[in-house]
Amino acid sequence: MQSLKSTALEPTRAELAGLSAGQRLGRLLPVYGLPLLTVLLIVIFSIALPDTFPTMLNLRSILGDKAIIAILSLAAMIPMMAGRIDLTVGYGIVLWHVLAIALQTQLGLDWPVAVLIVLVLSCALGLFNGLLVELAHIDSFIATLGTGTVLYALALWYTEGRQVIGMLPQGFTALYTLQPLGIPIAAYYVFALAVALWIVTEYLPIGRYLYAIGANPRAAQLNGIPTRRYVIGAFVVSGLLGGIAGVVLAARLRIGQASVGLEYLLPALVGAFLGSTTIKPGRVNVWGTIAGVAILAVGISGIQQMGGAFYVEPLFNGLTLLLAIGLAGYAQRKRGHVRRVIASPAKGADPPPA
């Protein structure tokens, strides 16, 4: 599914050097507009809600609550780099958090073993999705929607609509409750994963290959890139991150319930799509995804503290997703326009030097 083309619009130094201060600001604003808007929202809510918003308690709440969404957004981002989409990031977390708890409370396994089993199965799910897309040639949206629905059905079948409850070891719950230096440990997971993915996607050949596949799979294949192998690998890593998010959710909730988890699908996709509109507009990227999740977290937290109704969060997520897709499409069209202008110089102009 070629949902996003991997062609970035960030300005080069040579381009900025020939612009005036106002033109330079106008060129940089679309690139860093989302982080600046996040900072602006923080200032506005801090002024409007001085007793509740700019507090350490609210910061811990935002970092802890939205860490799972951030991990899932990073998981969704990886297949998007290759022009695919993975909906099991939202469906899989339903089964993974139930399984992580059930393996300990009902089968009596040690929590490290239970976590390892969940992570292995989540990688197997990613491998299965990749095989469906690359070998069976099923559209990634349809393939992952089908496998995700099956996972959700398995969670409903196992739980029979009831909660999975039991005594969990302190070591397992500490995967979420620990707060090194006063910051929830889940935020450290997000930071570590973001740095690792940033290094891989920006400085290693793997990242360049995935972006090349997302931009033009046929051209990437003709240039010797094993597209099938890298797309399958992208789904495996996406599945692994989904398993990690499921384990963190289990440590947070301490109960397993099939009705919990699907609400993470839309925010995760919104964060990934928003990431394609900032930092490197026109392609999904790590820090853009983190910025997308950040503006969702800040906006929803501020609106809820100002008395927003219970439907504000899904409404905000849905509208933001539409805005993100619109901005991503605009960025791609703008990129195409720039390329056409460069490729066809004005009539009568001298040809460019060889």
Annotation keywords:
single chain, 354 residues, mainly alpha, ABC transporter involved in vitamin B12 uptake, BtuC, globular, disordered N terminus
What is the CATH architecture annotation? Answer: Orthogonal Bundle
Total helical segments: 14
Q: Briefly, what CATH class?
A: Mainly Alpha
Q: How can the largest sheet be summarized? A: none
The oligomeric state is: single chain
Average pLDDT, all residues: 85
Sketch the topology as an H/E string, one letter per element: HHHHHHHHHHHHHH
The end-to-end distance, rounded to whole angstroms, is 38 Å
Domains, number: 1
Helix percent reads: over 70%
Radius of gyration: 22 Å
Task: Count the E strands.
Answer: 0
Silhouette = globular
Provide the β-strand percentage band: under 5%
Characterization of the model:
With 354 residues, the chain is an all-alpha fold. The chain has a single domain (31-335), classed as Orthogonal Bundle (ABC transporter involved in vitamin B12 uptake, BtuC), CATH 1.10.3470. 72% of the residues lie in helices and 0% in strands. It has 14 helices and no strands. α2 (21-48) packs parallel to α13, α9 packs across α11 and α13 packs antiparallel against α14. The longest helix is centred in the C-terminal third of the chain and has 32 residues, at 312-343. The two termini are 38 Å apart.
